Amino acid sequence: MVTEFILLGLSSNPEMQLILFMVFLPIYLLTLAGNILIMVTIVHDRHLHTPMYFFLTNLSFIDVCHTSVTVPKMLSDFLSAEKTISFGGCVAQMFFLHLFTCTEIFLLTVMAYDRYVAICNPMHYLTVMNHKVCLLLTGAVWLGGTVHSLALTSMTIKLPYCGPREIDNFFCDVPPVIRLACTNTYIIKVLIISNSGLISVVCFMVLVGSYGVILVSLRNRFSEGRRKALSTCAAHLTVVTLFLGHCIFIYSRPSTSFSEDKVVSVFFTAITPLLNPIIYTLRNEDMKRALSKLMGRKVEVNSRNK
């Protein structure tokens, strides 16, 4: 029985691996810094203690966890000759990868509902999206992600692995791992498409539909309110397209390997979590004001200490 797998990674060229390390290390550090800064800013600014920013804090937290599941291992493999991962480590990667991925998909759907209520029913927004409802929705989001991840991971680890050990990627995911199983995996492949693929496609359709309703309702709004609402919706749609595009590409087709898989996976695990703080801060006036206030407060504290 196989006790460890070999990750083929992005390149077998040592010089290219060093270049990739120098490229992705700053990206990872910026991802952590950007998302943590968003969380700290929202916690410290009382004006941002609203349902929208409560969900945004959860999104930033998920992005930090999501990128930390795969990128640190990828960075260490760039500097090592043997790119191996234990069977237990591979299972852990698959579990947490699908936990945070599915949780983020559900959270993006909840955020679209939050924007729908805020824009289409503003008079009852704080009543509908009260603190208790936000906590219940967040709990349901995490519960759904956990159930989904447990289902996929348990199906994968029950398969026998007795021969091939090479995973043609830089992290463990269900589709490339089950290709190494020493048994017929047709049923599991169908379950993956009907589970992960269906979740991605349905959530994407719901999100696009909800934003379509929002855009229709904005036709009769004043220009300033309409501009702010459109800016928020555009930010959400950008994140949704980038994130769900990967899930639909990977999990909504038969388990065959394409040359584009690694590029899409890199964008999904390393680039998208970095773009989220950029999209939500540069396009959001409230966040920019809160960041400026937080930075000004820190400068004032430092000057007093001196």
TrEMBL record:
Keyword Coiled coil (UniProt): no
Localization annotation: Cell membrane; Membrane
SUPFAM superfamilies listed in its UniProt record: Family A G protein-coupled receptor-like (SSF81321)
Sections of the chain in a coiled coil: none
Transmembrane segments: 18-40, 52-71, 91-113, 133-151, 198-218, 230-251, 263-282
InterPro entries in the cross-refs: GPCR_Rhodpsn (IPR000276), GPCR_Rhodpsn_7TM (IPR017452), Olfact_rcpt (IPR000725), Olfactory_Receptors (IPR050427)
G-protein coupled receptors family 1 profile domain boundaries: 34-280
GO cellular component: plasma membrane
Pfam families attached to this UniProt entry: 7tm_4
The keyword Isomerase belongs to this UniProt entry's keyword annotation: no
Keywords assigned by UniProt, alphabetized: Cell membrane, G-protein coupled receptor, Membrane, Olfaction, Receptor, Sensory transduction, Transducer, Transmembrane, Transmembrane helix
Domain of life: Eukaryota
GO molecular-function term, one example from the UniProt record: olfactory receptor activity
Membrane topology per record: Multi-pass membrane protein
UniProt family annotation: Belongs to the G-protein coupled receptor 1 family.
Protein name: Olfactory receptor
Naturally occurring in which organism (per UniProt): Gopherus agassizii (Agassiz's desert tortoise)
